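User: Please look over both lines:
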Amino acid sequence: MQIMWGRWALLTVAMVTGGWGIMRLATPTEEQFYAKLSPELKRQMDEVRRRREGNAEMVSKLEAAAKKGEIIWADSMDPKSGRKV
């Protein structure tokens, strides 16, 4: 039995493309998803976003310190003097 490779390739590409298209149509954007959340879940999402911004700030500080060759363990205060170390 001879396999028709062209037909097989065409059907495979059509199935993969169709699946991708259905996924694109059915998956909401981040804005659409956020708009449908309840007020409590929106508050939780806003808190997660604020934490991410704080993490991004720490990453930028670490990158700047790495360029200078410094070591940063954490932003902390000296327990005796109360000043930033």
